[in-house]
C-alpha cells in the first residue's frame, strides 16, 4: 500500500500556468518565497528550508516522514507501517489489530523492505543527460538517456551502504536532477496504535472529513544494530493547531499528471481508468468475500484490502474529475493558452502533436504491457530474480532502471527481506490477474495464449503458487546469489514461468520505449521549454516521489453550502461510534476514556497541496516545529492528480496534541514521551 | 438474467436521422418495405408480417421466442431458461449442469415466473394519452398520463386470465400504442442441452465470434394442464444458412437509448456507467470467490454469475462506445442536424434545453433513488408485498405502474410462484448493495442512516435474511391475500424493513416524476415531433421490449484487417476445446462425437440490428421459416445501445441445423424431432 493521500478539483488551476494561491508541490531549490510573502506576509528563508530538508525522511515503502528526536526516532502514519505490523504478526500476536509499544528499544520490530532516506544534495544534471540523447529518438533515445543516468548515479554514490543516488526527471523531461540521499536500511517500529484507532471509520471515512483517526506511528532508524544519531531532527510540538495559521507540508508526493496534454488525459479517461475501475473492483469483491471465510483470512487479507480500497477511491475520484466538464474545460483552456503563447516559435514546434501520436501508438501496447506481468508477491519475486540475473550480466550502462548499480541494493533488500507470504492470497491475486488478462486481451490473442497455454487461470495460479519455493527468503537469496546459471537451472515452476514471459515483456518494453516513452521524453523537453519561456520559473514540476514543500494554512471549507469545521476533537470519536465496524471504538480508547482530554484537537485540515506519497509528512508551523502528520486528502482533492482547487481541496492531518494524548494515556510509552520532549 | 444480446458501434448511424442499411428495430406496423426492396430486391408484404407476428412470442423473463409446432412448442435460447433449470435443480438432480429432456410431456418442468405472450392487436392511443396530460407538467403530468394508461389497459383486457394489455411509450413520448396480447401463464420446459454445451467458452467467448454454442432450448405453453393449440406457428427448417441470404429477426429488443440527447449521454458517461462498472465488478468478485467455497455455492451461484458477467460486458462495451470520440462525434452531429432542421420552429422550441434541465435535476436524485431500494430476492418480495398492499387500496387510475389492474396478475404470479431462495446468496447481495449505498451516498447522508441505522451492512443483511420467512411461497401468498392489514401487522423483519423504506422511496419517485420524468415526457413528445417533421415516418423508435422486426443478411465482417467467417461448424468446437473450463467439452458432445456431423453449421452471424431482449428471437428466411435462434451480438455491437454500425455490428445465431443434430444425436428427443417435422 502506498498512501492515502491525494490533492485537487473544480475551480482547478491552469495546469501549465503560474500556480494559484497555496497551489504547488515545490522543489526545495525553487520555493516561491516572494509569492508566499505577498500572500501571507511571511515566507521561510533558505536556512529554514535547509533545516527542514535535513529532518525530512522518505520511506521506500511509499511514504514520507520526519526525524523527531536525536536518536533516529521517525514520525509517520500508521497506514505507512501497517504492512510492518502485518509482517510481524501471526496467529499468536496480532500487532496490526492490537497495536504495538516497544517496552524497550531492543524490542522494536524490524520492518521488512523498509528504508529511510534523507536528501543531502541536489545537483542539476540536465545538460549532461540531454546531451547524451541529443539527435536520438525512440528506443535509442531512452537507452542513451538511461545509460547516462546510470553513469551519473554510479559515479556519485560509491558508498552503497550509506548513500543512494537518483537522477530524477522533472517537468516531463524539462529538467534532470541528481538527488543524493543518506540512507538507513534498518528501520524498526517503536510505537503504533491499534488498527481500529488508526482506521476508525474505515473505507467509508477514508478521504472524508470530519475525521477521527489516530493515523500516526513511530519508527526508528538503526545502523550496526544501534539507533542512529540525528541531531538535525525537527522539533516535536504537541499543541493544537490555530485556525488560520500557516502550515508547511514537507514530503514526497508520489505522482501527479498536472502537465498531461489533452491526448494524455483522453487516454486516462477513455482507456486506463475504466479498466482499472472494473478490474480492481472485482479484486476488492473477491478479497472481501475471502476474508469472511475465516479469522485467518480476515487478518491476512486486511493489509491488501486497505490498499485496494484506498487506490479504488483515488481512481473513482479521478474518473469523476475527468468526467466533470467544468474541471476538464479548465485543463483544456490551460493547454490552449500555452499553445497560444508558443505559436510561431519554431524551436518548440508542435510537441502536443508528438504526444498525441505517441499516445495513439500506446493504445495498442497498453493492455499487453499491463497484463503480461501477472500480479502476485511470488510471481513478483520470480520476475525480479529473472530480470536481475539477466541484467547483471550486462554492463551498468545497458541495464534496465531497477537493476543498475545504484538501484540494485534496494532491489536486493526488497527481494530477500523475510516477510510472510499467504499462498491463498497469492493464488487469488494471480488467478484474478490472469483471468483479467484473458478478458481484456481476448481468448484468441497470442499474449493470452502465452500466459495461459491450455490451462485455466485458476489451474495455472494454483499450480505455480503451490509448486514454488520462493516464499522462503533463503531460497530467494540462493537464487539471487546464484545468478543467471542458477535461474536457468531452476526447476521452480514460478521461476520457469517468469523466464517464459520475460522475452515478450522485454519486447513490449522496447516497443513502448520506441513508440511512446522515447517520443514523450523528446516532446516533454519541448513542452517544458515552452512553459519556461512563457511563465519563467514560477512553476513546480509534477510530483515524482521526491522531496517537495507545500505551503498553506489551517482552514475549513464549504461543502454544498455547509461549513466544514477545521478541527475535530478526541471527544468526537466517542460520539461518532456506533459500536459496529468500521465505526467501533478501539478497545484502548474505551479503556482510557476517563483519562482522555475530550477537547484535545484530534484531526484537522489545511489548504496544503499534497497527494499520495505525502502520507506521514510532517506538518510544520512557521517556527519549523512539527504540529501534525498529514495522512489524507479530503474527497474534493481526489482530482488533484490533474489539478488543484484551493477553495475545496484539503489536507487531513492528525495533530501532535492527539498523538501526545495517545502516547501518555491510551498506548502509554513514557520513554518516547521523554525522548520527544528533549531539546 | 435478461439476455445476452446487444447491437451497434463506430461508423454509427445518425441517431435521429433516417436509418442506414440494415439498421433498425422496426415496429410491425411501420416496416420500411420500400427501402428494403431497394436494398435487397425483395421485401415482405403485410401478410408475411402478420404471419410472423402470430408466431412470435415474448417471454416475461426478458427474452424472445417463437412457436414452432401446433402443440405450443416454443423455441428460445438456453440462457433464457437457465433460471428455470436452476429453479428445478437441487443436490440430487442438477438440470442446469446436465441438461434436460422430458421423456414425455407430463414430465416437462414448470418454469416459475415465466409467461409467454403473443401480440394480437396494436392500436394507436397517442391522442387519448396526450390529451390526458395536455397543459400539465412534472408529477401532475406523469400522474395524469399513468391514470389514462391504466384506464385504457383495464378497459381493453377484461379477460385477465388470457389477455394482457400494455400501453407502450414510443419515441420517448412521441407515440403511445396499446399492445394487446394473448398470454400463456403456464410455461414448461421440454428440452435443454447441458450448460457446458450452451455456454462453451463462457464469459470469455460471450459477445465474441467465431462461436460454438448450443444456446437453444424448447418450452411448451400449457393451459388447464394441457398443451395449447398453436396453429399459427412458424415452420422449423433445420438447414444451414446460405452466405448472403436475407434474414429477419423478430423479437423484443429490451431497451436502447439511440434517441438520447447529448445531455442524457453525458449523464450516462459521467455518472451512471462508472458507478455501475465499479459496483457490479465488485459483486462479480464477491460471487466468484463465494462459488469457490463449495460445490453447492458453485451450483447455486451460477445463474446469477452468468447474469452479472453478461451485464458487465454490456456496460463495459457502453463505456467504451461513449469514450470513443469518433462514435460520440456522430451522435453529436445527428443532434446538431436535427436542431438545424428545427431552427425557428416555435411550436417545437428548445426541448434539448428542457431535457438538459431535467437531467441536471436528476443528478441529485440518481444515487438516492438507486440505493434506497436494496438488492436481493427476499427484499424484492417484501417490497412488492408492501407496495401491492398499499397500492391496492387506491383506485386503479391512481396506482403505480406495476400495480394497476392490468399489471397485477403478472406481479402476483412472479411473487407467488415457488422458486428456491439461497439465503447465503441473498445475504451477500444485500450486504453488497447496502455497503455500496453507504459508499456512494456517504456515511453522514440521511438516506444512509435510514438504510442502516446503527447497524453495519453485514449485520443488517444477516439479521433480515435470517429472520424473514418470505422464502416460503405460502407465506408470501398469505401476505398478498391478507392485504394492507396483514402487511402492517406482520412481524417479519424484511416486511418491516420494506415498510420503513417505502415512504422515502415514494418521495424520491415523486421528486423524480416532478423534476425528471415529467419534463422528459413533455420534451420527448416535442423531440419526436421534430423528428417526424424532419424525417417523416422513416424512423424506428427506441427499443421498449415490444415486438420488432429487423432485416439483414448472413454476412461476416472484417476485424482489425482480418476477415471473420460467417459460420462455424460442429467440428470446430472439438478443435477449440482445451479440456479446461470454460473451454471444456460438454460430456454429451464427447459421447456423441462419432455420430455428430462435423460439417454441420453450428453458429453464424447476420447483419440484423438487435439488442438484449432479442435473445431467443427466431431468425427467419424469406420463406418465413425458422433457420436459427439469435442469442448474442458480437463485441462491436455493444455500443448498440446508442447507435448502429452495419459494417461491424453482428447478430450471433445458433443454427437450426445444429439444434437438429443435438435433438437427434446428442440429447436425443425423438418425439420433438417428429413434432418439429410435422407440417
Automatic annotation (TrEMBL), chains A, B:
One of its GO terms (molecular function) is serine-type aminopeptidase activity. Keywords: Aminopeptidase, Hydrolase, Protease, Serine protease, Signal. GO terms for biological process: peptide catabolic process; proteolysis. InterPro entries: Pep_S46, Peptidase_S1_PA, Peptidase_S1_PA_chymotrypsin. Transmembrane segments: none annotated. SUPFAM superfamilies: Trypsin-like serine proteases. Residues 1-21 form the signal peptide. The keyword Signal applies. It is an enzyme of class 3 (hydrolase). Its EC number is 3.4.14.-. It comes from the Bacteria. Gene3D superfamilies: Trypsin-like serine proteases. Belongs to the peptidase S46 family. Catalyzes the removal of dipeptides from the N-terminus of oligopeptides. PANTHER family: PERIPLASMIC PEPTIDASE SUBFAMILY S1B. This is Dipeptidyl-peptidase. It comes from Altererythrobacter epoxidivorans.
